[in-house]
Design a protein that fits this description.
Length: 256
């Protein structure tokens, strides 16, 4: 499915904050080889290249639209069109970084050990994924899927809980790691404008559902979701909307 860089970047600042928090927990002096899996428009990838200017940095993404937006800004990064699950570096990496991307991939039970295999001894796997699928933004999405004639079409696309809990990932990473640090953070985003939670999800989790619908069905589905979201996330007295968003982080150092 094609991604819209402009739509995704509409909330660039709150989306960037978790990446900066993850980057701040990576303790590497001079990594030589770095990859950003699911790099999107490359704003985080460029930060990796700026922090470690002597390193070779790859930005990997499967979306041609996102990669075109990433390459439009000059940098030292090498942009690679590939699926994050199947991409293999030519040599093990000192840092394998992924921000808000791996939730789109299935079978994490086998994926995360494979990712650790791509990290050099003493290197780091650093991952952040949204863990907000219990929140109203996603629960309402599922309710809306079931609330109309589009249910048979959309039900297989509504990936309800694609991310596990922290202990699940600890058990996957610990056999390969000298140290594993896993934590969760809840961000209270203060959003402006009309229906901002709807606009946020239109750039991420809602997109596959909307892409599967056309014309009147698409408009009716989006209208019903917008109505329900308005009840779950009412405007505050100052006109803004509060969006509580939980994210899961993990930093694993590969055994030497």
């Amino acid at each position: 499915m094609p991604w819209d860089p402009k739509l995704y970047s509409a909330f660039a600042a709150p989306r960037l904050r978790p990446a900066l928090d993850l980057l701040g927990r990576v303790d590497l002096d001079r990594p030589a080889r770095i990859a950003d899996l699911g790099c999107g428009t490359g704003n985080v990838t460029r930060l990796l290249a700026e922090r470690w200017p002597e390193a070779r940095v790859w930005g990997v993404d499967s979306s041609p639209e996102m990669l075109r937006a990433a390459a439009a800004e000059p940098s030292s990064v090498t942009w690679v069109a590939s699926d994050a699950a199947s991409w293999q570096p030519e040599a093990p990496l000192d840092l394998l970084f992924s921000n808000a991307a791996l939730q789109w991939l299935d079978d994490h039970h086998s994926l995360f050990p494979r990712l650790m295999d791509r990290v050099a001894p003493g290197g780091v796997l650093a991952v952040q994924m949204p863990h907000n699928h219990y929140a109203a933004s996603h629960a309402v999405m599922t309710e809306t899927v079931e609330a109309g004639p589009w249910a048979p079409l959309l039900r297989p696309l509504a990936r309800r809980f694609p991310v596990g809990d922290g202990d699940f990932y600890y058990d996957l990473l610990a056999p390969h790691a000298a140290h594993v640090d896993i934590w969760e953070t809840e961000y209270l985003h203060v959003l402006d404008g009309d229906d901002p939670v709807v606009k946020w999800t239109m750039g991420t989790a809602l997109k596959p559902l909307l892409d599967a619908l056309e014309g009147e069905a698409r408009a009716e589905f989006l209208g019903e979701y917008t109505r329900r979201i308005g009840l779950a996330y009412p405007r505050r007295a100052d006109g803004r909307t509060l969006f509580l968003f939980r994210r899961l982080f993990m930093v694993a150092s590969r055994q030497g």
